[in-house]
Each structure stands twice: as structure tokens, then as C-alpha cells.
Amino acid sequence: MSQQPTISPVSEETIIKACHDRPLPEIGMIRQKWQTDSIPQTAIEDRAAAEVGNLAVDKIPAGGEVAVGVGSRGIANLPVIVRGVIRGLSERGFDPFIFPAMGSHGGATAEGQAAKLDALGINKENVGCPIRSTMQTVEVGQTSERNIPAVADANAAEADAIIPINRIKAHTDFQGKVESGLSKMLVIGMGKQRGAKIAHEWSVDWSLRDMLPEISSLLREKLPVVGGIALVEDQNDETTIIEGVPTSNFLTREAELLETAYELMPTLPFDNLDVLIIDQLGKDISGSGMDTNVIGRLVFGFDEPEPDTPEIKRIYARSLTEPSHGNACGVGSADLIHQDLLADMDVSKSLINTITASTLPGTRVPAPVETDRAGLTASLSTIGVAGPEDVRVARITDTMRLERMYVSTPLLKEARADPNLEVLNRATPVAFDDDGNLVNPSPVSTTH
Fold first, then answer.
1. Do the beta carbons of residue 64 and residue 427 sit within 8 Å?
2. Model confidence, pTM
3. Is the Cα dihedral 328, 156, 358, 296 positive or negative?
4. What pLDDT is recorded for position 319?
């Protein structure tokens, strides 16, 4: 039997030798100034409970079972919001339960999906109702022209009512009237691995921008969907909108909320960078691990145009979030990764996700390096001719948290001239520990 090949990280010594001990830039910290209006923490649960009343709850029989769909994303205040919705249903005399609405996530197993919810704080103790997790689906109909089957979670399909809870935001693979949100959760999340695979296979020939509204409408026609709880977050990833959207206004209101989400979406404050260091990627941050709308890269194989900005020559990713449970879908957007990220990858989970989504390039493993010093040095040595005082380098926590970031001297200069940016720290040399890894804390964890 032949020995299984392994990927070994490239040593710092090898990188330094190849790059001739390239001098590194100095970096300081900046902050983006955002005007936000988030819901107070103390009001979130009550707001969620009240919004249940805006749904078509009069169509639910007295004491009826209500299936509440919850996904795998790292949504702000998710346990509190879910608890509020469950409370709002219970107070109206209904019998709610939660079902995972996350397509193939969690390794496409019932146990894995329940574990994903638990990692996000969604369990019976926290939210006040049982979790029913299954990968079994039922077919509820087919689209009129292409005869595409529409499938749904078997537990949800048997309930007296269905309510998805999801954040409305820009999708990472396409643009349309509705993108990530309630319709996507019904079609792909509630469809489990089977429904997600059907949708993404057909998306190669028929765009998701057209498919999601049509299949969502079919599901709402065939199943007792009484509406959804839509969430919108501000630039700081805090909850700014919780809204019960009834079935009578489902697609129209979701499209309107998407426009609001685009207006509030955090982005990098620079249109071009030589190197972007990302401390962590993960499924709880973005479906693509790193939000493509932030990094300006699409590597997933769909016939969709890349964003015009930003232009980033090299991306170095350092780690994988714990709630990702090894799913490193989207790692292929990076050019280099730290060995810790490679060690935390579960290739099986990552591949199942990208097979389901027909996005195989997303799990191509970039070259792993032994240390942060090696990653930064290799990145800077492949961008062209530029001295340490001229390179445009930024370091962010992840693509969801962009208020604070480290930047190199040229970007500090631009920040001082921009009224929407504030310089928090002057430039100092990049510092590494004895193992060659960055000493400075993650930008989001730094207080001033």
C-alpha cells in the first residue's frame, strides 16, 4: 500500500532564504467612523417576540406545531433573537421547535448540524424549545418550466407552520433582487444537502438570482410558511433591524431590506492593497469563509463578474474559526495560509460543502507556511518592486469586523486625510514572537 501524501508547511528558513530576508513595513492602527443605530441589547429579545405578531400567525391552528428554521451563520445576538421568537410563539399558544436550516453544513449529518447550532448557542436550554435535526427531505413540487424539484426538511414539512430566521445580506457568489436571506434559507437551508445540491447544480446553467425567487415562491405555495424573521446588521455587525415579514410581502420586502443591507455593509476603506492579512476565516463569518464583496475575489467558478474594487495582490490567511468545525470552504481565495489553518481544516467537511455548492475551487489549499513572518515575507516578495516604506499592507480580524485594522505607512497617510477614518496608533515595526508569529493582538480585540 502506497503512503498517503501530506502537505507540509514551508519553513520560515526556506522562505527567508528564497526572499533574501526582505525588510518589512511599519504598521499603525486606524478606525473607520461609522454612524450606526443598533437595537439596544436589552430590547432585542422583546423586539423579536413582538415581530412574531406581524407574521400570518392567524393561519396557524390553536396549539399548532411551528418549525423555526435557524442556520449556521455567525449572526449577532442569534440565541437572544431565537429565544425571543420562540417566546413570542409560545405566548400565542403555539408549540415551536427548531430545525437546522443550513443545507449541507455540519458535514451533512443530523448530528453535525445539531452541533453547529449548539456551537452558536442554539440549544433547548438557551432558547426554550427542542431541536429536531434530520437530513431527511420531502419533495413538495417542481418548477413549471424546468421541472426542478423543490425539497424541504421532513420535520419542517410536517409542522403546522414554518418560520425561517435569517440575516439579509449581500451574497458572495451572485447579485440579484434577493441574495442571502429568507428565500435562500427556504430553498437551500431548509432543503438540506439534497436541496442545496439541486439548487447549486442548476445554478451553473440557471442563475441563482432567478432560481431563488421562483423556488422560494413554490415552497411558500406548497408549505405552511407564515413568513420569516428578517435581520439586518450594521457596519459593526450589531443588530439594527428585526422584522417579521409576512408571506404576503415576502419577496418585495426582502429585496428592500437587501438594499438597506448593502448600504450598511462594512468594506475596506482602500481600493487597492499589495497585501491583506486576514486573522481568521470561517463559515460563521461568511458562506465563502472570506466575504467576496470585501476581498474583491470570486474563485468559485460561476459565470459572475468580480467586484470592481478592491484590488488586492496577495491575501495571507492565518487561522480558521472554531465554529467552522473544520469547514474551510473559501480558503482557495487566499494565496498563502498559516500552518495552523491547515491543521484545523477538515477536508471532508470542506469538500462536501463545495460539492454541494458546485464551487470546488473554493477548497483549493493555498501553500501553507510555518510562521507569520514567512507568510508576510513571501507575500511582499511577489508583488513587484516596492520598498517597505511604499507597500500597501492591511491586517484585519476577518471580513465581518472591519472597524479597526492595522495598516502600513502609505495607508496611514491616506487615513489622516480622510474624514471618515481616524488614526489610533502611529507606525511601528511589525513585531513577531520567538516562533515567528505576530505579537500584536487582533485588531478587533484591541481597546483604546
1. no
2. 0.75
3. negative
4. 96
Give CA–CA dist 259/25, Å, rounded. 38
DSSP label of 169: B
- Measured CA to CA, the distance from residue 434 to residue 443 in angstroms comes to 21
Q: Are 410 and 275 within 8 A, CB to CB?
A: no
pLDDT of residue 108 exceeding 90: no
How many CB atoms are closer than 10 A to CB 18? 13
CATH code 3.40.50.11440 region(s) in the chain: 41-264
Q: Which long-range contacts (CB under 8 A, 24 or more apart) does 36-40 make?
A: 36/234, 36/235, 36/236, 36/238, 36/240, 37/234, 37/240, 38/234, 38/236, 38/238, 38/239, 38/240, 39/238, 39/239, 39/240, 39/241, 39/242
In order of 326, 336, 337, 341, the CA distances from 345 in angstroms are 4, 14, 11, 6
Q: How many CB atoms lie within 10 A of CB 93?
A: 12
Q: Tell me, what's the pLDDT at 385?
A: 82
* Contact present, 269 and 420 (Cβ < 8 Å): yes
Distance separating alpha carbons of residues 25 and 389, to the nearest angstrom: 6
As a whole number, the mean pLDDT across the chain is 90
CATH number of the domain located at residue range(s) 41-264 in this protein: 3.40.50.11440
Which band of pLDDT confidence, cut at 50, 70 and 90, is reported for residue 445?
low
CA 133, 134, 135, 136 dihedral sign is negative
CA distance linking residue 188 with residue 9, whole number of Å: 36
> Is 11 a residue whose pLDDT tops 60?
yes
Least confident range from 87-96, 263-272, 273-282: namely 263-272
How does DSSP classify residue 442?
P
> Within the chain, what is the greatest distance between any pair of CA atoms?
74
Specify which of 127-131, 198-202, 320-324, 359-363 reaches the highest per-range mean pLDDT.
Answer: 127-131
Sign of the alpha-carbon torsion through 379, 400, 357, 320:
positive
CB 31 within 8 A of CB 403: yes
Residue 55, amino acid: L
Tell me the mean pLDDT in the region 248-275.
93
